[in-house]
């Protein structure tokens, strides 16, 4: 029986090559798109899930009322880690970890930069990064030990064993390799090439520790097995208030955030976890994957039911000779599963061909693990599900024909106003139009933020880390860059102009409201920041230490800070911050330091005598009279002269600023790509339906032409029904898309308004695509010779 089913399915496949091709192609493209999306989703869901103790790992967060709302962030004081181990018996291990930094590795004459993190010795006991060599419990106990990844070890020592070898880091200290880790997987929040011990950080004279007021270090906690999390959460909540007086007045709380929520859910509004974060995109793309697959299945359903008259006699004869309805249902579902299997094989080829470009675009290393039994089971389950979904409606529809009517020839197609086929076409195009509108709005939002005035001039502005000997030779490097005509202005700052490395509250000034808890972004600058970055001064002037030596305790504020401080005449006013009294020398227009999608925040640009900030970055305005390449080549020679052990690696401010749009750009492009696929699959089905309609109405068209109907009349006759369905789809899709985009845009304080023309473009485009799809078969049928179609009458 089963063999007979497949034989019939195979013969039907060969007998209707055109429709079979459309069915298989549509299903294959839909399945391939769904597989690609599901691979992305699976990768997102798998983040940090490989750690064996994942259910006991937490990150400590702060929750503090500031600026009239409750803020949460995931970095704490360096003092917290040891206190947690001392005060909470439920805690098994605690590990602090610095943010990644670049470190110079030297072995003889060979030097290279590696990205690393400084961590407590318990880090490798909390997290399950597989060690090829070494002991996780002791690898980082020595202050001059270093743990490398396999790739890093190979790049440093070649094929020689790395364990026990000595390497110089930062051209200053010797470190012994005490452990080799497997290369980190792509589905981890951590991305380092080496680990250095926290004990070494304590001996580093450059380290500044501001105690409980410094909250810039991630802290990870491993709870003991079978610990009551609620009890520990209550204990840690007010822990900081026991050690820090200001925490009591601020109602400062600490809380532990579980590892399984780090990647997808770490988004907070007014102190509570909200529905934002990456989980939104996982849900969104899950829906897109489901709908793309559904649309492909709808094509199958529509084409199968459209060809029902050709299968009606077969059904009638089978029923007459004793076939039961369930047997026929099984046959038709078997045929659809067979087609789904063929489509699945084609989809696999499409996925394998697409993965390199897809991985490059998504910055992931996605792959199909064909050697894994679970993968094979999932794939065949996916095919079976698709076959059942695609074949369910046609199977019940075709098996319901009454043999008496079919064999008498009284079986007729219905021309009802509302039919399942029309509903399915409307559903297809509704989703396609929703995606078209969403893609346009997302692009609008990205362009709106990208075109926003930044408040400074990014053109020809580069920065370089003050690594190695640059700090002590800064004056000489600056002088040579200017005298050689490479740069028109040079200054040094505490952080790049595109990032915030420090913020804080508790500043004092004349007339301040005692209840004010404004959180200011902090920035430190040397001479000439305004000239270098092109900042726009509305009052006062830039720092000029040669002319005004007291500018070392000068302060430049932005307009947002001035609104908070409410000075009518701010120049000369004193602002106290962490024990230093600064006098305001200038007020600048707001500039974007962090997110271009958010309102600008109040900023304090402190003079060089800051007690809590250090210079980390050199800002260089390249001379526009020479090419950028020539400027950088000459600059490389100067840096090599004064900082020979380090590679000259400048970063362009405009490129770093562009990175702020990468996430939204990626989401928008993905949505656009899958919108295009959705439209293509829908149009493929529409093309098949038009082809079939032209075939079934060929005699009617012949008669109409003989009676005087023009090509335009015939084309309109065959096209108008589909255009009506697409217009109905538009009126369903438009409000859904508006609601979805309105909700999405609510997460951005600086956002575009949804314009009416977006819907007009989507509507016109959908109708145009529909006409383009159906016009070929319509015109072909309209210009056919009517004599041939009527010859058999």
From TrEMBL:
InterPro entries: ABC3_permease_C, MacB_PCD, Macrolide_Exporter_MacB. Coiled coil: none annotated. Residues 287-402, 673-786 form the ABC3 transporter permease C-terminal domain. It is a multi-pass membrane protein. It is found in: Cell membrane. Pfam families: FtsX, MacB_PCD. Residues 20-238 form the MacB-like periplasmic core domain. GO terms for molecular function: transmembrane transporter activity. The chain crosses the membrane at residues 21-41, 284-303, 328-353, 373-401, 422-442, 670-694, 722-742, 754-774. Keywords: Cell membrane, Membrane, Transmembrane, Transmembrane helix. One of its GO terms (cellular component) is plasma membrane. The keyword Cell membrane applies. This is FtsX-like permease family protein.
């Amino acid at each position: 029986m089963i063999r007979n089913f497949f034989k019939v399915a195979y013969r039907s496949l060969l007998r209707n090559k055109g429709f079979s091709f459309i069915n298989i192609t549509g299903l294959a493209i839909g399945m391939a798109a769904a597989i690609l999306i599901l691979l992305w989703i699976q990768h997102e869901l798998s983040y940090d899930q490989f750690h064996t103790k994942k259910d006991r790992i937490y990150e400590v967060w702060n929750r503090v009322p500031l600026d009239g709302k409750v803020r949460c962030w995931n970095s704490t004081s360096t003092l917290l880690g040891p206190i947690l181990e001392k005060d909470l018996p439920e805690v098994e291990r605690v590990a602090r970890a610095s943010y990644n930094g670049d470190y110079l590795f030297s072995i003889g004459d060979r030097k290279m930069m590696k990205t690393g993190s400084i961590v407590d010795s318990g880090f490798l006991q909390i997290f399950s990064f597989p060690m090829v060599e070494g002991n996780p419990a002791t690898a980082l106990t020595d202050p001059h030990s270093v743990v490398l990844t396999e790739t890093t070890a190979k790049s440093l020592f070649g094929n020689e064993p790395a364990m026990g070898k000595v390497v110089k880091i930062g051209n200053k200290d010797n470190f012994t390799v005490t452990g080799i880790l497997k290369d980190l997987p792509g589905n981890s929040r951590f991305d380092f090439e080496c680990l250095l011990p926290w004990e070494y950080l304590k001996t580093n004279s450059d380290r500044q520790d501001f105690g409980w007021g410094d909250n810039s270090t991630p802290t990870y906690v491993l709870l003991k097995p079978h610990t009551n999390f609620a009890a520990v959460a209550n204990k840690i909540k007010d822990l900081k208030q026991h050690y820090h007086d200001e925490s009591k007045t601020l109602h400062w709380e600490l809380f532990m955030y579980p590892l399984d929520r780090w990647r997808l859910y770490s988004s907070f509004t007014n102190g509570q976890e909200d529905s934002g974060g990456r989980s939104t995109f996982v849900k969104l793309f899950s829906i897109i994957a489901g709908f793309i697959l559904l649309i492909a299945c709808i094509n199958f359903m529509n084409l199968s039911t459209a060809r029902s008259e050709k299968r009606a006699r077969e059904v009638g004869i089978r029923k007459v000779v004793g076939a039961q309805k369930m047997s026929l249902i099984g046959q038709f579902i078997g045929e659809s599963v067979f087609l789904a299997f063929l489509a699945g094989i084609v989809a696999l080829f499409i996925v394998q061909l697409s993965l390199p470009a897809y991985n490059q675009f998504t910055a992931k290393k996605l792959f199909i693990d064909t050697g894994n039994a679970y993968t094979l089971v999932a794939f065949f389950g996916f095919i079976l599900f698709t076959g059942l979904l695609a074949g369910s409606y046609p199977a019940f529809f075709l098996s319901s024909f009454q043999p008496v009517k079919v064999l008498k020839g009284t079986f007729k197609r219905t021309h009802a106003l509302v039919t399942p086929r029309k509903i399915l076409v409307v559903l297809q195009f509704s989703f396609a139009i929703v995606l078209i509108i969403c893609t346009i709005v997302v692009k609008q939002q990205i362009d709106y933020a990208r075109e926003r005035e930044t408040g400074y001039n990014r053109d020809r502005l580069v920065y370089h880390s003050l690594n190695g000997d640059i700090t002590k030779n800064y004056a000489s490097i600056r002088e040579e860059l200017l005298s050689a005509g490479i740069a028109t202005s040079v200054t040094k700052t505490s952080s790049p102009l595109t990032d915030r490395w420090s913020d804080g509250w508790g500043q004092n000034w004349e007339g301040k409201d005692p209840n004010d808890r404004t959180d200011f972004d902090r920035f430190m600058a040397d001479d000439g920041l305004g000239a270098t970055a092109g900042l726009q001064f509305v009052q006062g002037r830039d720092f000029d230490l040669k002319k005004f030596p007291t500018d070392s305790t000068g302060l430049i504020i932005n307009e947002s800070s001035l609104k908070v401080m409410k000075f009518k005449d701010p120049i000369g006013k004193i602002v106290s911050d962490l024990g230093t009294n600064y006098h305001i020398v200038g007020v600048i227009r707001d500039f974007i330091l962090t997110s271009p999608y958010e309102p600008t925040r109040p900023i304090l640009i402190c003079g060089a005598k800051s007690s809590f900030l250090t210079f980390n970055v050199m800002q260089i305005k390249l001379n526009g009279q020479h090419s950028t390449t020539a400027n950088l080549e000459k600059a490389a020679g100067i840096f090599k002269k004064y900082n020979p052990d380090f590679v000259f690696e400048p970063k362009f401010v405009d490129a770093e600023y562009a990175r702020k749009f990468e996430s939204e750009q990626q989401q928008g492009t993905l949505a656009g790509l899958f919108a295009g696929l959705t439209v293509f699959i829908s149009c493929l089905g529409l093309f098949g339906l038009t082809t079939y309609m032209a075939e079934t109405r060929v005699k009617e068209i012949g008669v109409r032409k003989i009676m005087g109907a023009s090509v335009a009349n015939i084309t309109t006759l065959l096209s108008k029904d589909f255009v009506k369905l697409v217009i109905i789809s538009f009126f369903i899709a438009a409000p859904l898309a508006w609601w979805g985009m309105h909700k999405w845009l609510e997460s951005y304080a600086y956002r575009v308004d949804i314009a009416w023309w977006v819907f007009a473009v989507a509507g016109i485009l959908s109708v145009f695509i529909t006409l383009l799809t159906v016009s070929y078969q319509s015109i072909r049928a309209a210009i056919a010779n009517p004599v041939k179609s009527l010859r058999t009458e």
